[in-house]
Write a structure and sequence with these properties.
Strand content of chain A: under 5%
Oligomer: homodimer
CATH class of the largest domain in chain A: Mainly Alpha
CATH topology of the largest domain in chain A: Tetracycline Repressor, domain 2
Number of domains of chain A: 3
CATH superfamily of the largest domain in chain A: Tetracycline Repressor, domain 2
Radius of gyration of chain A: 21 Å
Largest sheet of chain A: none
Number of strands of chain A: 0
Distance between the termini of chain A: 42 Å
Helix content of chain A: 55-70%
Number of helices of chain A: 11
Chain lengths: ~240, ~240
DNA sequence: ACCTGAACACCGTTCAAGT
DNA sequence: ACCTGAACACCGTTCAAGT
């Protein structure tokens, strides 16, 4: 599933003939982004990986922007939403599953946040996920007047947490820069930041804004579930009060 | 306040002499990013805006990466953290102020997320903000064993929400693409997404993943505070249970 | 109808040559 | 010690020319 762009300008991506090509471009683009990161991704290597000319790509996608959004949708296809009619599964449980599925997918494609968070992306899978989340939130007891707020708060938490959590491994800072940040944390912790100094054992690399190495959060990495529980508890408590 | 890089390779940014220059570079870079977005920002225009050669910039900053992180720290300077010894102000209230100050600053510099969320950034102001947040969370009643989790959840929510919320206005998608997304939402809403169709009046542009126009969320825009309340309520309830 | 090579107007970074 | 211009190896996108 991908967005349709103006048929007058370029070939229709949904027609039977040649549809494979557009799909192949998306898959190859995804593969290249997965390997080398979205910053390093460019049209020329993509074309040569596919064995075509760079300009031929512009017959399937009006611009790199359209292609990137197609890649986002392609990856989000993997997010699993439990259907609401599944018996014996509470709305809360379904929402927890959706959250962790979304987190898993975004985590295993660490370059997607760079694309996802910095632009507006409405795609079939975006809508599908939103539909599932909204229905769960209703099931949890959130009233209609609060539903949009709850949905925004939920997306903000899940997507935001994962976006900050998962630094692309290819985006490792240069050793010099990494060392400078580590030193900064040691020095800063000693001077004006007693709580930071107390909690962040050197090398812990455990908390946002205080860690200098990329990849997922270290240690137990319980923060996501812990925070989601607090957020959903807050949702439910708010409806009762 | 900025990170120090290796003095052997380049001139020290903290020495009295020439320090103005490094500061001037950061400020000019910030101005250019503010106007044109971080994607469009490049070294050549920066140099010519400052009246120097491009290569002269590399004497103050080892790479564009160091410069971008310096810009992040420069902007985060504006985040206000109420000191913990301020009487008659509860920890909860201080945390709410810190959250909205952080949100305000990030919102008014909409291009910062692209820099902030996609790489590891430890800077003096990052540490200052973390220190304030940790101390507030402790004051709210979060136990030491949960403090890192609570801090991560809080950062994930605040930074994440704001990152998704604030699309850089310069990042407006091409009209064709924007129209395709709007249509997608209409069609998709009608077919497999009844809740989306029910809630998202056309043109509402109100919810993450379902809106096609950049800028802040429309309408009442109460979602941030609503979600923060739920999260902090959840924090407090969790400590009592 | 589709593809192509060449071109346009850009990038970040380096480095020998200047002062 | 600092700055510079030119160069290197790249970008996204367009378009006349081919089949």
């Amino acid at each position: 599933m991908r967005l349709q762009h103006d048929r007058k300008r370029v070939c229709a991506p949904f027609t039977k003939r040649k549809r494979v090509d557009a799909q192949a471009i998306v898959e190859q683009a995804h593969a290249l982004i997965h390997e080398g990161g979205s910053a390093a991704f460019s049209m020329r290597p993509l074309a040569s990986a596919l064995g075509t000319s760079t300009s031929a790509l512009y017959r399937r996608f009006p611009s790199k922007e359209w292609l990137l959004i197609a890649v986002v949708d392609y990856v989000l296809e993997d997010v699993v939403a439990t259907p609401p009619n599944a018996q014996a599964v509470t709305a809360r449980r379904r929402l927890e599953h959706l959250s962790s599925s979304l987190r898993e997918v975004l985590s295993s494609h660490p370059h997607l946040h760079e694309i996802l968070t910095s632009r507006v992306t409405v795609t079939p899978n975006t809508i599908r996920i939103a539909e599932a989340a909204l229905s769960c939130l209703r099931g949890v007891g959130v009233g209609d007047s609060d539903l949009v707020d709850a949905y925004n708060a939920w997306s903000g938490y899940v997507i935001g947490f994962t976006a900050i959590e998962t630094k692309p491994p290819g985006f490792t800072p240069e050793p010099d820069l990494q060392e400078a940040m580590r030193r900064q944390l040691e020095d800063g912790g000693g001077l004006g930041a007693p709580t930071v100094a107390e909690l962040m054992s050197p090398g812990a690399n455990i908390a946002f804004g205080l860690r200098w190495a990329p990849g997922r959060l270290g240690a137990a990495n319980t923060s996501f579930d812990w925070g989601l529980k607090a957020l959903l508890d807050g949702f439910e408590a708010g409806q009762r009060g």
